[in-house]
Design a protein that fits this description.
Layout (H helix, E strand, L loop, with lengths): L5 E5 L4 H10 L5 E4 L15 E4 L6 H5 L6 E4 L9 H6 L3 E3 L6 H16 L2 H9 L19 E5 L3 H9 L6 E5 L6 H7 L1 E3 L2 H7 L2 E4 L13 H6 L5 E4 L8 H9 L5 E4 L19 E3 L8 H21 L10
Parallel strand pairs: 1-2, 1-3, 3-4, 4-5, 6-7, 6-9, 7-8, 9-10, 10-11, 11-12
């Protein structure tokens, strides 16, 4: 067992985030930060465990840390880690899967409501001294009675379905892997192909990962199938939607509106036409970001570091070691 147990968090973060990590850290770990707010300064070269939150971990970076035994992304994804390079060097590459799934599912529904009820736009106008009690009544909508189409029936997609129970909506979903009949009955969800979902859904919620198959999957062809009253919300990844085709669909009133939390690229280009559209709700990749989710993720990441030192092997290894 190592005598040092140096754990380094690499990348930018806020002081409250740092405070959370310090609070949940096992006292046996020597927790350091490459960009500390108040805690101990650390260098990647000294790390035995490197924890990141999207920070790019390349082969060259791993080679700069001769004692490195594990890299962990404090989140569900791990595309920021060169998995093959880590495997070649005998370094565990890990993640913290699904600990922000509840938060992300809630955000999907929040975007639906904010878009349909024009909440951010009306908020801005009330604060500017305007009073639009009647202006938008004819052109804002409720979820009740609508068909909600979920693209991606993984953990987050299922949580969206669970949270829509009792809302008086019809749920349809599309996924390469169909749920069991028992799960479909429990979630009152109907399996359809993607084209059928695009044609029938009033609200389309993207909750799938970015893969070679899903990249650009929602494009002009799919938008052309949708209802003119449809809205689309994206809590998957920005590149699942062809951004230029989304602009086309909105500018030409092929669909009614959108709620976009994830972008391609990120941060979003400040000159994007999407940022100037009243029926587009924009957020800055916040779907999985709440205090509760951070506590869960940081606790798991740091507990996994302690697990490596105490047991010799961490959980959630993603590179085949």
């Amino acid at each position: 067992m190592s005598d040092t147990r140096i754990v380094v968090f690499a990348g930018k973060h806020t002081e409250p985030m740092e405070q959370l990590m310090v609070e949940v850290c096992d006292p046996s770990l020597d927790l350091r930060f490459t960009e500390p707010c108040f805690a101990k300064k650390g260098e990647i070269k000294d790390a035995e465990v490197l924890i990141t939150s999207g920070f790019k971990v390349t082969a060259e970076l791993m080679d700069s840390a001769p004692n490195l035994r594990m890299v962990e992304n404090a989140g569900t994804g791990f595309s920021n880690i060169d998995l093959e390079a880590a495997k070649e060097r005998g370094i565990f590459a890990c993640n913290c899967p699904n600990l922000n799934a509840t938060t992300t599912a809630e955000m999907s529904i929040a975007l639906m409501l904010a878009c349909y009820r024009r909440i951010p736009m009306v908020d801005r106008r009330v604060k500017a001294g305007e009073w639009h009690k009647y202006t938008y009544r004819h052109d804002s909508y409720e979820l009740y009675g609508k068909t909600i189409g979920i693209i991606g029936a993984g953990i987050i997609g299922k949580m969206v379905m669970e949270r829509l129970q009792g809302w008086g909506v019809r749920i349809i979903y599309s996924d390469p892997f169909r749920m069991t009949a028992e799960m479909e009955e429990k979630l009152r969800a109907e399996y359809v192909d993607l084209d059928t979902l695009c044609r029938e859904a009033d609200v389309i919620s993207i909750n799938c990962p970015l893969t070679p198959t899903t990249k650009g999957m929602i494009n002009r062809e799919k938008f052309s199938l949708m209802k003119k009253t449809a809205i689309i919300v994206n809590e998957g990844r920005g590149a699942v939607i062809d951004q230029d085709d989304l602009v086309w669909a909105l500018e030409n009133e092929v669909i009614w509106g959108a709620g976009i939390d994830v972008w391609e690229p990120e941060p979003v280009d400040p000159n994007s036409p999407l940022l100037k559209m009243e029926k587009v709700i924009t957020t800055s990749h916040l779907g999985g970001s709440t205090r509760e989710a951070l506590v869960r993720v940081y606790t798991e990441a740091l507990d996994n570091a302690a697990r490596l030192f105490n047991e010799g092997r961490p959980h959630n290894v993603q590179n085949g070691l």
